[in-house]
Every structure is written in C-alpha cells, then in structure tokens.
Write a structure and sequence with these properties.
7 helices; mainly alpha; globular
C-alpha cells in the first residue's frame, strides 16, 4: 500500500499539488546533480525527459506526457551497457515518474547513491547533499520524506 502522504489529494491522499511539484523539483535537482559524474554526454532523450519533468512542475504539460517520457527512458536504459549511465537513466526515469506518483521522487536518492558508489565516490556525502537539497526545496515535507526513505530501506 502506498503512503498517503505521497498520493495527490485529488486521488484521496494527503499531498497538495504545490508539494507534489516541490518533490518533482527535488527529484530533478538530484538527477541533474549526477550529470558531472558521467563519463559521457547525456543523450537527447534524457535531456528531453528532464525538460518534460520541469514543464510538468510548471504546470505546462500533463501527467500522461511525463509518464510517457519516463517509460521511454526506462526502455532506453535496458539497452545501455555502461553501468553508471544505466543508473543515471534510471534516476531520470524515476524523477520524471514523480508526476504520476510522488514517491517516485525517492528513486534518484537510491540510484544516485548507487551511481556514486559505483564510481568509488562517497555515498554518504551524496546523501547529505540530497537531504540538504530536500530541506531547501521541500522544507515542510522533508521529515516525512526522510521517514519514508528510511521505511523503504533506501537510507
């Protein structure tokens, strides 16, 4: 059963639209933060997906379009050989899927930490950045998100 704090109010949950959009901003920020770690340039599909996520956050595209992009990114990830880039693809797909269900915003935490670990970097430092950004972009949601991340075993 999904946590009601991540279900939009119009679907019977507790999440207000402005908070949902804040979670999208956080998910996108975490994902974009990973780009400098990559050894290759970012594919145009992924850049387009990130843009669709931003547009959803601004209210200029619908959830269906964001979900379509998320599915396309996950399908693309299946063909990616580079493990780090595959993790980045998964982070992008999860971030954009936040438009559909807000708990997908936690996906970039999971994939981002896996990516930095794979690259021999400090996952705890990445998590600290992720959580600081959460508190900055989603101050009223931060405690609940941290609790959910813990409950899911992500942190």
């Amino acid at each position: 059963m999904r946590n009601p704090r991540f279900i939009a109010r119009h679907r019977g949950g507790l999440l207000e639209m402005d908070h949902h959009r804040q979670l999208m901003s956080w998910a996108l920020a975490m994902t974009e933060h990973l780009i400098p770690y990559l050894s290759t340039s970012v594919d145009s599909l992924l850049l387009e997906a990130l843009e669709i996520g931003k547009q959803w956050g601004e209210g200029s595209v619908g959830t269906g379009e964001a979900m379509g992009m998320s599915r396309s990114v996950h399908k693309h990830a299946q063909s990616v050989a580079d493990p780090a880039y595959k993790l980045f693809c998964r982070a992008v797909g999860q971030a954009v899927a936040t438009a559909h269900m807000a708990d997908h915003s936690m996906g970039p935490v999971y994939y981002g930490r896996k990516l930095v670990t794979l690259l021999g970097m400090d996952a705890d430092k990445e998590l600290a950045w992720q959580l600081a950004t959460l508190h900055e972009l989603c101050p009223s949601l931060a405690d609940g998100v941290v609790e959910a991340l813990s409950e899911k075993g992500i942190i």
